[in-house]
Design brief:
The chain has 17 helices and no strands.
């Protein structure tokens, strides 16, 4: 409850201060095109070690008209790409603790590959939907009473803060608090005891891609964090409880429901255009992911496995792969 309250206060602070960021985004950072905002969301996720705060910040910027809908959509997509690196870092931690290096790193590499394979095609699909205005008729009428209720709760807290701090300080402090709220929420989740939970049986119980797809979707909905739901796979994989062919559809499912926390941010802001961006992102992920799982899973699995094997073949390949994930977002902003 403390994490949820902190999240709501942080979103309101960023909403109040976002307009002060417009000159910075337009003048100094030159965030004028979709590619710029894609790189910004990507690098911001790296900086805060989570995609959720970066996506929430994108929602606040949209509500203040500092970004367009398409720029917000690409920034959110960038945050998803950046968030997948966190799983690789979890793998590094397990490798340092003495687990087999390539075994634990493979889950992180696979997460990066699968996320990119979904998010990049979904980027094209979502941009098309937004440009054509196919969801413009959705007015999200339920947002208005929700916003009124949230304001009634938050106004006694927010009014003294907004009167005291300048807009730019509100946005920065809100960004810090929202990162803290996600960390607090992650700590509130129960720690999994794999043997007690019977998860050592999972490789025998779950074989079908459709089941793992739904499981990845459900776990991400419950934890409100794709970093947590996919990060769980690292210790499961390291201990041999789950196999590569089970991991792939699970990550695809997680990439559909990964926007649940961003939807919460859009609802708190009471911004219909922000809810539309979230809806388009989820629809696009489903359009890309579902045919893969239902119709073309085996060819897809072979392709991803081959790419994983190439990446892990040598240190040079691994360095090239990892370097691309750092250099591409920088190149997008500088382009």
């Amino acid at each position: 409850m403390a994490a949820i309250l902190l999240f709501a206060v942080a979103m309101e602070m960023m909403k109040s201060g976002a307009s002060a960021l417009t000159p910075l985004l337009r003048g100094h950072l030159n965030i004028e095109h979709a590619a710029d905002s894609l790189g910004l969301g990507w690098l911001m996720a790296y900086a805060v070690m989570s995609g959720s705060p970066a996506a929430a910040i994108a929602m606040a910027l949209l509500s203040a008209n500092a970004l367009t809908q398409i720029q917000t959509y690409t920034m959110v997509t960038g945050s998803r790409l950046g968030a997948s690196l966190i799983v690789l870092l979890i793998g590094f931690v397990y490798a340092v603790r003495g687990n087999e290096r390539w075994s634990v790193l493979s889950t992180g590499i696979l997460s990066l590959l699968l996320t990119a394979s979904v998010q990049l095609p979904a980027l094209a699909v979502g941009t098309l939907i937004l440009k054509r205005g196919w969801l413009d008729s959705a007015h999200w009428s339920w947002l208005s009473p929700l916003t009124v209720g949230m304001n009634a709760i938050l106004d006694p807290v927010m009014n003294p803060i907004t009167r005291t701090l300048p807009e730019w300080a509100l946005f920065i402090l809100g960004g810090v608090l929202i990162t803290g709220s996600f960390q607090l929420f992650d700590k509130a989740l129960p720690e999994l005891r794999f043997e007690r939970a019977g998860l050592h049986q999972i490789s025998r119980l779950i074989y079908r891609p459709g089941v793992m797809f739904l499981l990845g979707l459900a776990v991400t909905l419950l934890t409100l964090s794709v970093s947590v739901s996919i990060g769980i796979l690292v210790p499961l994989s390291a201990r041999g409880y789950i196999r590569r062919e089970n991991i792939m559809p699970y990550i695809l499912g997680a990439n559909v429901s990964t926007m649940i926390d961003t939807l919460a941010a859009a609802m708190i802001l009471g911004a219909p255009q922000a809810v539309t961006v979230v809806a388009v992102h989820m629809i696009s992920a489903i359009i890309v992911s579902l045919p893969i799982v239902v119709l073309a899973y085996e060819p897809y699995r072979r392709l991803m496995s081959n790419m994983l094997e190439w990446t892990m073949q040598s240190k040079r390949n691994f360095a090239f792969f990892l370097g691309a994930f750092f250099l591409v977002p920088i190149a997008l902003i500088l382009s």
